[in-house]
């Protein structure tokens, strides 16, 4: 019994159970049933056999339940091994590895993604590797060429010990040149014996090893991706009919090598998550491939395999591996990653129209490879967060420091520059919704930074499927949710329209009484040189004016502040129109008075600063400075008009001298008032009305930003603040001439009064 157990532990365990249960069959009968092909066997019958032989055994019900579950997922022979292992005194698994017993049934029709357990696959692969590293010895090593004529055993093989770390690499027919395969003259032996030897060589080649009679002829690199195409040479001693069939099988070995090389390269972290997911999917295929080889070897060992059967068995796998080898070669040669890989796989699906089996498999492969990409996408469209350590996602986060530490113009840059689309990373099936994807995450990110919890109405599982558009619907639903919530945050919780109305009151001079009172209060201070103006004084006068005018009812009046810029209006306009962002940096002040440098500043908090950002406020300031300067010129001309009462007392000769001057003053007054009327009534008001109408129909924040920018740009253009060469400079010069005229008239009238009524001052 001990000798029998050592030679064949499976039959020993079966014989022991059959004797105890008095079962009406032998160990060979049980093994034959578990080796039956998939189409002929019945799991219920197999369980019944196990139930009979385990009768009166401890824990039989528990082990039978375990076997029932294993039969649904694993190879039947593995299930039998596991069951017998419970009742054997030795470890049958290890014993089988040493004795090279077959553990699989033939594969006639196998789905490419059928579940194969890591345990069973590791056993199969370990046996294949052991065969290459000297762990297995072929039967009949001492058989001479003359004796092989009637034997079905494989040829002798002398395998030296290889590097023990070699199993982590890829068999590519070049790394095992140190293995010397013994080759005998077999041309004289029968074709049936040659066929057996050829079958063993084919199985070795399909695992990436050289055979005795099949060797790799050349390995050709197909491009910069270092993918290889292997050609094989079959010994002339093999009969030509066998060689022809073997040549149809051998391309499978080349495909296998190409895929294995790709899996090894894609296993590194820097290759990206998409390639790693694709590598894992391909690795599942290779497990099935190893299982197929083990099943073929099992059939060969029992004498049931021919080259015709082998070709029939591997034909489906051959077609599939051909498609996969082409795909991984394209990926390697073009150095694709991330969305580019998904685009290639998606296009391959369309290219395989007509080949239903291959197309179905590539669809499954694409779905598995897209899982990490779709997980990143789901986190982005549902939380506004990017988790993309390998830089594969179509949206790139350009944030380098915290928002609170950035300068005030950050709000504009945040929306336009922080999150950007990388077109080369977009899978083709997401190209049409890429802008929606970008906006969805941006909206959610803003909501999250406002301190609000982002909670989608339902948990959406974002998965890609080439056969339907469910992933598009999920993205669109997420976009509608984010857009609606951010608009509510801006328009309702943060009252964006109230802030915009407040900006119009103060920076577009809509609050008339406030502007008049403020100019009366600050006229003396603003007439000084800008270096002598005290900002604190202006702030105090502003606060006083706000509380004495009708603006005291404005809830946002405290957001208005005074600012003394370091440049005049023309310089500011030139900087903004030329997109020079340096204009807010400090420069040496020009020789300007306070009036020429004065502007209101409106400060808001996040997220209103997305709309009223520094660029937008600067455009408002340009309009304000133009209107404010014209209003100042109008006030100065009005003072000259008051001097008419003094001129009435002049003699007719003296009054005649001032008549033409007062006529010119009236023309200046009309020109300045018409300019103010045009800008405020014919430009700002109609555009504001259109802006309000558009704001009542907005559906997302991008529309709010677009409408607001259109309003400002239209006002600047029609107020002649975008033409830096002619109109604006002419208007600015015209206003300066009016001010110089007012100064001249006031001086001359004062001199005339002194000469006429107080001549004694002249003598003094």
From TrEMBL:
<dbReference type="GO" id="GO:0043015">
    <property type="term" value="F:gamma-tubulin binding"/>
</dbReference>
<dbReference type="InterPro" id="IPR007259">
    <property type="entry name" value="GCP"/>
</dbReference>
<protein>
    <recommendedName>
        <fullName>Gamma-tubulin complex component</fullName>
    </recommendedName>
</protein>
<dbReference type="GO" id="GO:0000930">
    <property type="term" value="C:gamma-tubulin complex"/>
</dbReference>
<dbReference type="GO" id="GO:0000922">
    <property type="term" value="C:spindle pole"/>
</dbReference>
<keyword id="KW-0963">Cytoplasm</keyword>
<feature type="domain" description="Gamma tubulin complex component protein N-terminal">
    <location>
        <begin position="199"/>
        <end position="493"/>
    </location>
</feature>
<dbReference type="GO" id="GO:0051225">
    <property type="term" value="P:spindle assembly"/>
</dbReference>
<dbReference type="Pfam" id="PF17681">
    <property type="entry name" value="GCP_N_terminal"/>
</dbReference>
<feature type="domain" description="Gamma tubulin complex component C-terminal">
    <location>
        <begin position="496"/>
        <end position="747"/>
    </location>
</feature>
<comment type="similarity">
    <text>Belongs to the TUBGCP family.</text>
</comment>
<dbReference type="GO" id="GO:0051011">
    <property type="term" value="F:microtubule minus-end binding"/>
</dbReference>
<dbReference type="GO" id="GO:0051321">
    <property type="term" value="P:meiotic cell cycle"/>
</dbReference>
<dbReference type="GO" id="GO:0000278">
    <property type="term" value="P:mitotic cell cycle"/>
</dbReference>
<comment type="function">
    <text>Component of the gamma-tubulin ring complex (gTuRC) which mediates microtubule nucleation. The gTuRC regulates the minus-end nucleation of alpha-beta tubulin heterodimers that grow into microtubule protafilaments, a critical step in centrosome duplication and spindle formation. Plays a role in neuronal migration.</text>
</comment>
<dbReference type="InterPro" id="IPR041470">
    <property type="entry name" value="GCP_N"/>
</dbReference>
<dbReference type="InterPro" id="IPR042241">
    <property type="entry name" value="GCP_C_sf"/>
</dbReference>
<dbReference type="InterPro" id="IPR040457">
    <property type="entry name" value="GCP_C"/>
</dbReference>
<comment type="subunit">
    <text>Component of the gamma-tubulin ring complex (gTuRC) consisting of TUBGCP2, TUBGCP3, TUBGCP4, TUBGCP5 and TUBGCP6 and gamma-tubulin TUBG1 or TUBG2. TUBGCP2, TUBGCP3, TUBGCP4, TUBGCP5 and TUBGCP6 assemble in a 5:5:2:1:1 stoichiometry; each is associated with a gamma-tubulin, thereby arranging 14 gamma-tubulins in a helical manner. Gamma-tubulin at the first position is blocked by TUBGCP3 at the last position, allowing 13 protafilaments to grow into a microtubule.</text>
</comment>
<dbReference type="Pfam" id="PF04130">
    <property type="entry name" value="GCP_C_terminal"/>
</dbReference>
<dbReference type="GO" id="GO:0007020">
    <property type="term" value="P:microtubule nucleation"/>
</dbReference>
<dbReference type="GO" id="GO:0005874">
    <property type="term" value="C:microtubule"/>
</dbReference>
<dbReference type="GO" id="GO:0005813">
    <property type="term" value="C:centrosome"/>
</dbReference>
<dbReference type="GO" id="GO:0031122">
    <property type="term" value="P:cytoplasmic microtubule organization"/>
</dbReference>
<keyword id="KW-0493">Microtubule</keyword>
<keyword id="KW-0206">Cytoskeleton</keyword>
């Amino acid at each position: 019994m001990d000798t029998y157990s050592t030679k064949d532990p499976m039959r020993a365990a079966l014989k022991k159970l059959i004797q105890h249960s008095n079962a009406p069959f032998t160990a060979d009968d049980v093994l034959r049933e578990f080796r039956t092909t998939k189409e002929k066997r019945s799991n219920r019958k197999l369980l019944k056999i196990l139930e009979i032989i385990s009768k009166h055994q401890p824990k039989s019900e528990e082990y039978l339940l375990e076997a029932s579950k294993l039969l649904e997922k694993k190879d039947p022979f593995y299930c039998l091994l596991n069951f017998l292992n419970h009742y054997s005194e030795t470890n049958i698994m290890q014993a089988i590895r040493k004795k090279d017993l077959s553990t699989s049934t033939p594969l006639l029709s196998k789905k490419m993604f059928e579940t194969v357990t890591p345990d069973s696959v590791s056993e199969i692969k370990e046996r294949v590797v052991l065969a290459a590293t000297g762990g297995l010895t072929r039967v009949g090593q001492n058989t001479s060429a003359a004796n092989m004529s009637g034997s079905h055993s494989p040829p002798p093989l002398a395998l030296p010990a290889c590097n023990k770390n070699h199993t982590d690499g890829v068999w590519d027919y070049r790394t095992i040149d140190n293995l010397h395969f013994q080759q005998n003259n077999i041309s004289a032996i029968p074709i049936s014996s040659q066929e057996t030897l050829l079958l063993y060589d084919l199985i070795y080649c399909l695992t990436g090893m050289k055979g005795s009679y099949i060797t790799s002829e050349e390995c050709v690199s197909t491009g910069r991706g270092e993918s290889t195409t292997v050609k094989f040479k079959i010994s002339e001693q093999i009969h030509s009919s066998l060689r022809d069939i073997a040549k149809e099988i051998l391309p499978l070995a080349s495909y296998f090598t190409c895929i294995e090389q790709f899996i090894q390269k894609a296993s590194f972290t820097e290759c990206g998550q998409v390639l790693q997911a694709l590598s894992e999917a391909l690795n599942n295929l290779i497990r099935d491939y190893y299982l197929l080889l083990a099943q073929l070897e099992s059939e060969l060992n029992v004498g049931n395999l021919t080259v015709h059967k082998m070709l029939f068995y591997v034909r489906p796998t051959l077609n599939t591996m051909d498609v996969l080898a082409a795909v991984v070669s394209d990926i390697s040669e073009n150095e694709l990653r991330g969305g580019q890989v998904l685009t290639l796989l998606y296009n391959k699906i369309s290219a395989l129209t007509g080949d239903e089996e291959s197309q179905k498999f590539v669809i499954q492969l694409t779905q598995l490879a897209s899982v990490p990409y779709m997980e990143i996408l789901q986190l982005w469209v549902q939380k506004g967060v990017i988790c993309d350590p390998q830089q594969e996602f179509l949206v790139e986060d350009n944030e380098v420091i915290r928002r609170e530490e950035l300068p005030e113009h950050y709000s504009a840059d945040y929306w336009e520059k922080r999150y950007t689309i990388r077109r080369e990373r977009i899978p083709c099936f997401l190209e049409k919704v890429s802008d929606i994807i970008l906006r969805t995450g941006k909206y959610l990110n803003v909501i999250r930074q406002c301190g609000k919890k982002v909670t989608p109405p339902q948990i959406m599982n974002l998965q890609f499927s080439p056969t339907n558009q469910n992933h598009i619907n999920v993205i669109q639903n997420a976009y509608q949710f984010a857009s609606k919530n951010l608009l509510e945050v801006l328009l309702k919780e943060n009252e964006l329209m109230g802030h915009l109305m407040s900006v119009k009151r103060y920076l577009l001079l809509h609050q008339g009484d406030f502007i008049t009172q403020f100019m009366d209060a600050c006229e003396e201070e603003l007439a000084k040189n800008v270096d002598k103006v005290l900002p604190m004084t202006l702030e105090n006068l502003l606060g006083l004016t706000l509380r004495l005018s009708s603006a005291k009812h404005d809830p946002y009046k405290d957001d208005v502040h005074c600012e003394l810029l370091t440049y005049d209006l023309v310089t500011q306009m030139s900087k903004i129109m030329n997109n020079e962002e340096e204009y807010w940096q400090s420069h040496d002040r020009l020789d300007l008075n306070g009036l020429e440098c004065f502007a209101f500043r409106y400060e808001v908090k996040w997220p209103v600063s997305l709309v009223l950002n520094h660029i937008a406020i600067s455009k408002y300031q340009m309009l304000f400075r133009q209107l404010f300067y014209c209003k100042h010129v109008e006030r100065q001309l009005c003072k000259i008009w008051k001097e008419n009462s003094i001129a009435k007392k002049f003699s007719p000769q003296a009054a005649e001298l001032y008549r033409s001057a007062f006529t010119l003053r009236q023309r200046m007054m009309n020109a300045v008032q018409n300019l103010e009327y045009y800008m405020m009534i014919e430009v700002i008001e109609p555009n504001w009305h259109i802006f309000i109408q558009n704001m009542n129909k907005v559906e997302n924040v991008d529309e709010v930003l677009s409408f607001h920018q259109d309003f400002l740009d239209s006002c600047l253009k029609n107020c002649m603040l975008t033409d830096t060469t002619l109109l604006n400079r002419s208007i600015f010069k015209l206003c300066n001439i009016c001010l110089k005229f007012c100064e001249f008239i006031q001086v001359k009238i004062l001199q005339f009064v002194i000469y006429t009524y107080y001549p004694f001052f002249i003598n003094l």
